[in-house]
Design brief:
Elements (H helix, E strand, L loop, with lengths): L1 H9 L3 H23 L4 E6 L3 H16 L3 E2 L8 E6 L4 H20 L4 E6 L5 H10 L5 E3 L7 H11 L3 E3 L20 E5 L1 E2 L10 H5 L3 E2 L2 H13 L4 E5 L16 H8 L7 E5 L8 H9 L6 E3 L7 H6 L6 H14 L4 E8 L6 H14 L3 E6 L17 H24 L5 E9 L6 E6 L4 E5 L8 E9 L4 E5 L1
Parallel strand pairs: 1-2, 1-3, 3-4, 4-5, 5-6, 7-10, 10-11, 12-13, 13-14, 17-19
Antiparallel strand pairs: 8-9, 15-16, 15-18, 16-17, 18-19
Helix pairs in contact: 2-6, 9-10, 13-14
Bound molecules: 5'-deoxyadenosine and iron/sulfur cluster.
């Protein structure tokens, strides 16, 4: 065993090294299967954003290559992996709660291996808590070394001890990891990693490092491969896609990247997230307008409506400049829908500030809003700001905000009734097996009667009715 490790250690290619470990573990799992007649099973949970969901597809791809079979029943798993989030405190509490449960599970099934990775693991306080109180965890790694899972599993198997491997930063991007895509017809594609913005409430820049863009060639090759596999819709992922390409040796704008990807044969739809309002250029608006595959929906997190709160959030735009950007976007693409993220209860937020947020909501008319109660994140500048808002006040504002948002979303959906739209049929409805659900170009959720053979196809439908959060349609 040690000899094999030495051979691996001298190999220069990281990916190749990991493939060797995958092979090694596969052999062990094959032996286990021939002895017991059973395959080892993994349970994988991605918490938080789409970036994490996409990272988990890679983790699952590696586990599959190592001979594990996926299970959705955590109680059946031999290997449990949580890809964690730390953007808000409740996401962290959920992990600790689940770890408490796993402690009992492991008493009955001591061979179960528990792995934790992702954003939460990049925080020293979390590592300290794990070391002190959750010693039944076996493997801990972070956001920069996801690709090392096979090697860390091997180390755990050989040493029998908990493996901690947390890096502070990593320049290199390891390409071509195996991956199990969640859907055959749509796929996420990372175009960049990290964030340079340091919004004062946000922990992301501390746990995902500085901005790094993938090269156009690597992105294009991945998208072409996806198209060859039958993927129709791609979602380009980055914390701030509008600053894509700035750090490349030969800088390329995000607008240019969209124009290049728009030419890939087989891909029918292109979405992207997230756009920072401060970086949304006229060049990008033009590219969105010109590229027929780029969906006419835009996620543009406003976070707050008050210019003073935005200044303290370190967002680098004002209420007026945000509204001006929205005006330009709507002028160029009148049918576009806008979605947003809003935080209620940022330190020092007064009733007047909150009214400014309601004002923006009314002026923009969002089709979807992800609304959050401010969560104090240790290590961020906002955590030590004075005038933290009382919980009661925040809850009241939050409810009042939904009272403004929901009827507006309902009205927007009602305006769609009578229109013919194209829907990418995604899955059978959980409530009715004769009904399919999918998304229109403008990201509206649509339900319509149809056979499951249509899944993965672009289907023209006519909207006949609406609810608050989805539309009902018939095939035309
Ligand atoms: N508290 C509440 N919401 C937050 N977000 C980021 N950090 C915090 C925090 N500390 C929200 C922002 C961001 C989204 C992904 O999460 O709205 O856009
Ligand atoms: Fe967080 Fe702001 Fe970066 Fe988004 S842009 S990840 S909110 S720091």
């Amino acid at each position: 065993m040690n000899e094999t490790r030495k051979e691996i250690a001298v190999d220069e290619s990281e990916l190749f090294r990991q493939l060797e470990y995958m092979h090694l573990i596969r052999q062990k799992n094959d032996e286990y299967e021939s002895e017991t007649g059973k395959k080892k099973k993994f349970y994988s949970l991605a918490m938080g954003c789409q970036m994490n969901a996409h990272d988990s597809e890679k983790l699952e791809g590696m586990l599959d290559k190592m001979g594990y079979e996926r299970t959705d029943e955590e109680m059946e798993a031999d290997f449990v992996i949580y890809n964690t989030c730390c953007v808000r405190e409740n996401a962290e509490q959920k992990v600790y709660g689940k770890l408490g449960w796993l402690k009992h599970y492991k008493k009955d099934k001591p061979d179960t291996v528990i792995a934790l990775c992702g954003c939460m693991m990049q925080q020293d306080t979390v590592l300290k808590t794990l070391r002190e109180k959750y010693r039944h965890v076996d493997i801990v790694f972070g956001t920069f070394n996801l690709y090392k899972l096979p090697e860390l599993m091997n180390t755990r198997m050989e040493s029998g001890e908990t493996v901690y491997d947390i890096w502070q930063e990593h320049e290199e991007i390891v390409e071509d990891l195996p991956s199990i895509r969640q859907f055959p017809y749509k796929a996420s594609v990372n175009i960049m990693f990290g964030c340079n913005n340091f919004c004062s409430y946000c922990i992301v820049p501390y746990v995902r490092g500085r901005e790094r863009s993938r090269s156009v060639e690597d992105i294009l090759a991945e998208v072409q491969k996806l198209a060859d596999d039958g993927v129709k819709e791609i979602v380009l992922l980055g914390q701030n896609v509008n600053s894509y390409g700035k750090s490349l040796d030969e800088p390329v704008s995000f607008a240019k990247l969209l124009r290049i990807l728009n030419e890939v044969e087989g891909i029918e739809r292109i979405r992207f997230m997230t756009s920072h309002p401060k970086d949304l250029s006229d060049e990008l608006i033009e590219a969105m307008k010109d590229c027929h595959k780029v969906c006419k929906s835009l996620h543009l997190p406003v976070q707050a409506g008050s210019t003073e709160i935005l200044r303290r959030m370190n967002r680098h735009y004002t209420k007026e400049s945000y509204l001006e950007t929205v005006r330009k976007v709507k002028e160029a693409m009148p049918d576009i829908t806008l979605s947003t993220d809003i935080i209620v209860g940022f330190p020092g937020e007064t009733e007047e500030d909150f009214q400014e947020t309601l004002d923006v909501i009314r002026m923009v008319g969002y089709s979807t809003a992800y609304t959050f109660i401010y969560s104090k994140r240790t290590g961020t500048p906002a955590a030590t700001m004075e005038n933290q808002v009382e919980e009661e006040v925040i809850k009241d504002r939050f409810d009042r905000m939904l009272d403004v948002l929901n009827p507006m979303i309902f009205d927007l959906n009602r305006k769609m009734v009578g229109k013919v739209v194209t829907v990418l049929a995604e899955e059978v409805s959980k409530h009715n097996e004769d009904v399919l659900t999918g998304r229109a170009d403008n990201n509206a959720l649509v339900h319509f009667k149809g056979n499951k053979d249509l899944i993965g196809q672009l289907v023209p439908v006519k909207i006949v009715d609406n609810k608050t959060f989805y539309l009902i349609a018939e095939r035309v």
